[in-house]
Amino acid sequence: MSTIQLKGTSKTPQVAFHDKPLSMEISGRSIPENSIAFYTPLLEWVDGHLKAGGNLDVSIRLEYFNTSSSKCLMDLLKRVEQSPAKATVLWYYEDEDEDMLEAGEDYDAIIDMPFRLIATEG
After folding, report:
1. CB of 32 closer than 8 Å to CB of 65
2. Do the beta carbons of residue 30 and residue 65 sit within 8 Å?
3. What DSSP character marks residue 80?
């Protein structure tokens, strides 16, 4: 399981996790019926693929996510933080979306790794 490619739907985000080169991207909307079931394979990928370390960009480009997805994202970022990988989180938000900016700021305050908040034109 070297790559995870999931096409986004109206309820689930697009996911692209690659081990060569090491990268993780989640984009779109995250309001799945069962967040734990959706995010478990992603958490397992992190556990299996970041043991060797390396440089990693974690790109998050979510338009919206619900509370259960928020917890799963925190679990994902915590696992990345605890891995040997040298990771940077790239949190993209539309320049007028205060909620997504604040969410990024909240994660930045909790996660102890480089975290860039990047405004995009909406």
Report:
1. no
2. yes
3. H
Q: What CATH number does residue 38 fall under?
A: 3.30.750.24
Q: What is the pTM of this model?
A: 0.95
Q: Can you give the pLDDT at residue 52?
A: 87
Alpha-carbon span 6 to 79, nearest angstrom: 20
In total, how many domains does the chain have? 1
Q: Name the residue range of residue 105's domain.
A: 3-120
Average pLDDT over the chain, rounded to an integer:
96
Residue spans of alpha helices (H) in 1-122: 35-49, 67-82, 98-110
Dist CA 87 CA 78 (whole Å): 11
Q: How far apart are the first and last CA of the chain?
A: 34
CA distance 15 to 33: 17
Interatomic CA distance for residues 32 and 46, integer angstroms: 20
pLDDT band at 96 (very low <50, low <70, confident <90, very high): very high
